[in-house]
Each structure stands twice: as structure tokens, then as C-alpha cells.
Amino acid sequence: MSQENCPVLQTHLVSLHSNKYYGKTFPTAKEQKAFEKNLYKKTHRANAEVIMLDGLTVVYRSNVDLFFYVMGSCHENELILGSVLNCLYDAVNQILRKNVEKRTLLENLDVILLAVDEICDGGIVLEADSTSVVQRVAVRSDDIPLGEQTVAQVLQSAKEQLKWSLLK
């Protein structure tokens, strides 16, 4: 596949605290902040999943106190952008163990940004399977044999299991 046929992203935004821009659509931080403010204003109460804004196709998804955005040029296929968004959201969901909220995302931002890098490199989509992304970036403490875990890891694992058993 030639590079001109590859889907190209303009940016990923997760919430408005961690974002990653590709290309030169918004070269300055001031332009980026203005765009983000306008984007949030247009999407925070909307029920749609796709909008056109400033010549970009934007697909987005919200969860509790976070918004996940994936953007491409107005010529990009919305289904591909949606697939990338679903991969990003599902990977974040798996990494954060279904506790997708702002606090836990910020605590694990290094792993989340690594997942973004696995999904997309320089705007070129590399992966759309969240399971593959998570396998490459996450070291889960419950995969470590019990004898090799620290006391804190064992307590954290037990706490997670108890929490999920109560939520079911």
C-alpha cells in the first residue's frame, strides 16, 4: 500500500489534558487551545459521534468525565477514524481495567501515550486491534506469579478483584 493511500490522522485528543497533534494543522499552542475550546463547546452536549469542524472530520466518544477524539482531514473515511477511536478507547479501557475516568487516566498517562504511539505513528494508522496494542504496552501485575509480587501488588490485585465482584 502506498503512503498516500494510508489513512492519516491529524490528531488524537484524550480529554483536554493529553493530546497529540500530527501535521501542521495547528502550528501554535494558541491555535491548538482555541481549536480544543471550540471542539469541546460543539461536542460536550451533542449526541452525534461524527462532526465536521474547521475542515476536519472529528469522531468522538465520551465516558464519565473524559472525551476521546480522533481527527482526520475532511477527505478521510469516517469508518476508519471510528475504528481508530474504538481501538484507542478499548485499549484505554483495558489498560485502566474498566475504570476509565480522568484521575486514573492521568495516573497511567505514560502507558496511555505509549498505546497511542502503538496505534498511530506520525499520523499514519498502524494498528486497529486494541488487544494487540494492550499486549505490547501493558505489564499487568496479575500476570506476574504470586510469589514474585510485592505485598502492595497482591493487595492491589485483591482490591481490584473484590471491587469487580461487588460491581457484578
How would you characterize this protein structure?
It is a single chain. The protein contains 6 helices and 7 strands; from the N terminus they run ββαβββαααββαα. By secondary structure, it is an alpha+beta fold. It has a single domain (9-167), classed as Beta-Lactamase (2-Layer Sandwich). The strands form 2 sheets. The chain has a 5-stranded antiparallel β-sheet with strand order 2-1-5-4-3, covered by helices on one side. Strand 3 (50-53) and strand 4 (56-63) form a beta hairpin. It is elongated and about 55 Å long. The termini are far apart. The model has no long low-confidence stretch (mean pLDDT 78).
Provide the descriptors you would attach to this structure in a database record.
two-stranded antiparallel ribbon, transport, single chain, alpha+beta, Beta-Lactamase, Longin-like_dom_sf, 168 residues
CATH fold node name: Beta-Lactamase
Elements, N to C (H/E): EEHEEEHHHEEHH
Low-confidence stretches: none
Q: Helical region count?
A: 6
CATH class: Alpha Beta
Most strands sheet: 5 strands, antiparallel
Per DSSP E runs of 2 or more residues, the count of β-strands stands at 7
Radius of gyration: 17 Å
Helix content: 40-55%
* Tally of individual domains: 1
- The geometry reads as elongated
Q: Strand-residue fraction? A: 15-25%
Oligomer: single chain
Strand order of the largest sheet: 2-1-5-4-3
Mean pLDDT comes to 78
Helix-strand category: alpha+beta
**CATH architecture verdict:** 2-Layer Sandwich
From the N-terminal CA to the C-terminal CA, the straight-line distance is: 45 Å
